[in-house]
Amino acid sequence: MQEGDRMVSTRPRDGKADPRAVRSADALLVRVTRASAGRTAAILLCAAAAAAASLALPAVLGLTLDLLLEGRPGAGRALAATVALTAAEVALGATVALLAGTVGARSTAWLRLRAIRRLLAAPPRSVSRFSPGDVATRLSVHATEAGAAPAAAAQVITAVLAPAGALVALFVIDPWIGLAFLLGLPALGLLLRSFARDSSDTVSRYQRVQSLLATRLTDALGGARAIAAAGTADEERARVLRPLGELGTEGRRMWSVHGSAMARSGVLMPLLITAVLAVGGFGLAEGRISVGDLLAVSRYAALAAGLGAVAGPLGALIRGRTAARRVNELVTVPPLTHGRRELPLGGTGTLELRGVGVALDGVWVLRGVDLCVPGGQTVAVVGRSGSGKSTLGAVAGRLTAPDEGEVRLDGVPLEAVAADVLRREVGYAFERPSLRGATVADAIASGVQTPSAERVRAAARAAGADDFVRALPRGYATALEEAPLSGGELQRLGLARAFAHAGRLMILDDATSSLDTATERQVDRALAREVRPGTRIVMAHRLSTAARADQVVWLEGGRVRAVRTHAELWRDPEYRAVFDCGDARGERVDR
Ligand SMILES: Nc1ncnc2c1ncn2[C@@H]1O[C@H](COP(=O)(O)OP(=O)(O)OP(=O)(O)O)[C@@H](O)[C@H]1O
Q: Which residues form the ABC transporter domain (predicted)?
């Protein structure tokens, strides 16, 4: 395994959502809403006040008309009230839009932060089921949609308030008019229900295809060199773009659900308003209502018909809930747990594995591993590709937790050790290190503790990196992205970082594979003389590394086949075959 390994693409499940996943995602939305509770409450209040203003407006307008027609006093004041209510409606509407934007942005940031924290706290093997493209889509597009859900929920509630109030007003003006409107409501209810159901399904499929596209694109970008070398750019482009057809289909389906709901409500609502106005006309003819009342009825009917407009925020809420499920999958990745214990002072790094097993994707890749590495020893872990060397390295330093058994360092179970103590005392170097920091010096220094500039240089010298770093345009102060690094130089910087933070246990996972033999030996000597002494676990494919180690752990199919010195093991042709030296009996060991 390498640091910054490419993650395996997941193929998200299709079809109906698991009810537990829906409940868990809804709980996440409740938590995100609580985080912006004040602003969300302000949206509700302002929108409720805007609804109240729109409800009062037709009554005041009708009264103004009646006063003007009948020449009664007070028409001026009624007109002023009309203007004030209109202004309040506009101002409150603008405030709601502003608050909804702010709540959306804050909620999105909240969700992203939680998801990123959890991804970084989880063991790499749990995170590996999400590809980088999938994670990027969930954190960008889907977090934004989920972040818009709290404001959309508030808007759905308030979008119902004004129509409900308008319906009451219609009944107050004339029960027959109210009844006429009420008769059309079941059709509207059915329409909204079918919109919510169809919309949720299509949105879920659309979001899945979005992730698939991003996954394929990032996979292709990551493997650009291999694609160019293989001359398969056209096939790759076709592979990346293949889901576009499905995206288009799902997109069209999504908008056709939306459009047909709009069209149906577009027919239903004018019909309802016409029916209401007809009944109002009879009421006027029969003297049950005044001309001003009829004007108010026409406005209230339009307001009540605005119930159809709830489809907008309802659609945003549905998209947000579906997107929250995808973000929630990141937020609920089980974290790697840590304890609070210190390691014994002066411990030499004795490592014990007792009955350790690790299962990946339901398959045991390491099983029944019993090992005891005395403090200060260097142990080489050898075995064919896929035999479990990296997994053993990961479990030995609690980058991952074992599924069975226990790992102890200086007698303390690793799961009981505090996270900062663990990362201070257990260091890693990988085949392809992922460097962090603004400059080359920062990259070497990055870790739970910041070593001095002198220690950074000493570590770089020990790792054989000092010469090429000093040859860079600004030496150690060269910006990391401006430092042209070969594979071997990158590895040496990764080693330098591990050396600068050396604790009682250091795990070198194929960390010297790109170094030439002379440099590797020089690094090995410096590691013995200039770096803090401790236990070293070295995953190796090279004969020379195994030969120099105090002991060799020979892995085969996830089990320990033997633990002996290299010289002892060398007599076994099957061991020699691991190094492709099956016939090399008596071959000089490169020490
Ligand atoms: N994230 C993962 N999900 C599922 N299986 C995995 C995962 N990572 C590794 N494996 C499998 O676990 C087994 C052990 O892998 P591991 O990387 O430990 O082997 P290795 O001996 O270090 O191999 P190599 O020498 O090629 O680096 C392999 O069969 C591999 O396919």
A: 351-582
